[in-house]
Amino acid sequence: MTERAPEFADPEKLAAEGAAFLLERFSLSSIDVALVLGSGWAAAADGLGQQIAHCDLAEVPGFAKPSVAGHGSELRVVRTTGGKIAAIFTGRTHLYEGRGAAQVVHGIRTSAAAGARIVVLTNGCGGLNRDWPPGTPVLIRDHINLTGATPLIGARFIDLSEAYASRLRDLARSVEPELPEGVYVQFRGPQFETPAEVRMAGVLGGDLVGMSTALEAVAAREAGMEVLGISLVTNLAAGISATPLSHQEVLEAGQEAAPRLRRLLAGIASAL
């Protein structure tokens, strides 16, 4: 069990400090939307709009430099073609890094404190559906959290009946009509899931397996944000794939899918 880092004794206060830094540093009154780019998605940051400013994530109060290969370490602020101010987090903290759930969701809480009402969460994942080959983006309809963790402390009862907004999924399909959707299962990691765990995920109703996103979605819903989740299938999951899993294939799948992901995110960002 991970402990809450001392600086996260008051997560809301730290999020307010991060938001104040962001708005003052970039001379903004607020931001409209946040995008978190997961494994394989880094190249999609380009072309999302006119860049206003950028800084290292670690400069913002409460943030740590992402430590996972394939994740960026930059916060970008852009103006989309639809006129919205978007904060793009090119990397994230994962629960398996041992920094606690509050650190994992700090970007979400900071974005909400800065005014964002929508967050787009992306990730690279293993797929259980053989009809979704590597390189397939899949909308997240719902999730199953198998981490044993939550960003909520105390009697904070948040409704997750629609953790991922159907309105935003419809908007994404207006950009790419054939996008499939499924249920994402978050494991704690960092080890890849065993074949038995993948079979369990399927029995529970899962279509996708990975190590991020669910805790961020919970924090976003607590903050009153609408959530759009998109997984990039980077490999067939263990027991379905005929070859051993590796993080390198995750990165390679993202590189190959980069043009499609860039078009998809750019279209979504402009339509929000």
Outline:
The chain is built from seven helices and nine strands, in the order αββββααββαβαβαβα. The protein has 272 residues and is of the alpha/beta class.
Brief descriptors of the model:
single chain; 272 residues; alpha/beta; Rossmann fold; 9 strands
Describe this protein's structure.
This protein is α/β, with parallel strands linked by helices and 272 residues long. The chain has helices at 11-25, 101-104, 106-113, 166-175, 195-204, 214-222, 247-271, and strands at residues 33-36, 50-56, 74-79, 85-89, 118-127, 136-145, 181-186, 208-210, 226-236. It has a single domain, classed as Rossmann fold (3-Layer(aba) Sandwich), CATH 3.40.50. The chain is built from seven helices and nine strands. Helix 1 (11-25) packs across helix 3. The longest helix has 25 residues, at 247-271. The N and C termini lie far apart (38 Å). The mean pLDDT is 90.
